[in-house]
Amino acid sequence: MGEFGIMASGMADQISKSIHTTPVISVLLIDDDIDLLYIARHFLEMGGGIKVDVVSSAKEGFEHLKRRKFDAIVSDYEMPEMTGIDLLKRLKTLGDRTPFIIFTGRGEEVSIEAMKSGADFCMQKGGSPRTQFMDLRNLISIAVNLRPSEDRQMNRDPRHPHCLYKA
Fold it and tell me: Is residue 82 part of a domain?
């Protein structure tokens, strides 16, 4: 196999290793709209690189987080028993620094409250599902990648919140 063949074979091995070792982002998605949960999971997982667990209440999400760590949390705001912001505050009080995105159908006042409470991003629901979930997927990647991998694993590194408004 000549020198070029050996070099090409080595490059193929490196590419193959990098493809197979790319970490998958684990996301906990919380919303009381069951249909939205499964549509969102479908679109978020469609491109690969993201694995989504779904729960239908903030209380259930909190219990789920006691058993498992995630790279990011995406939560609706308005749900029975506990809002997404109540869950966020509870997690922050416990020292949890997992990136948190409020995904809401409510307006600017919720976004401001989310940011003041420590949310990394706030995104308004609506519009084309494909575009909406592509934007959400990008926000998840940004929130997770803002944190060095060792901090991600240790759930540290508080950051400044950001907000995305949809026209």
Answer: yes
